[in-house]
Amino acid sequence: xxxxxxxxxxxxxxxxxxxxxxxxxxxxxxxxxxxxxxxxxxxxxxxxxxxxxxxxxxxxxxxxxxxxxxxxxxxxxxxxxxxxxxxxxxxxxxxxx
Length: 97
Known about the structure:
Elements: H1 2-96
């Protein structure tokens, strides 16, 4: 009879331990699920921010390209005017000789 009681106590202890382990595993699973949700949310925010940065860089690059094209056009016009002045000066010089 005493041996039966000990076996019953052992089974109850094992059962209690199993219930605790199961509860712990369930808690760990819920925590893991919450961590994944948080991580996904954080990554989504990062992706959105990076997308905004890329779009802004495209705008800046476009503005810089427009500025550089305008500067190039101005320099080309200045070069053309300088050539015209040089040609006029050469003609005057050759006419005076």
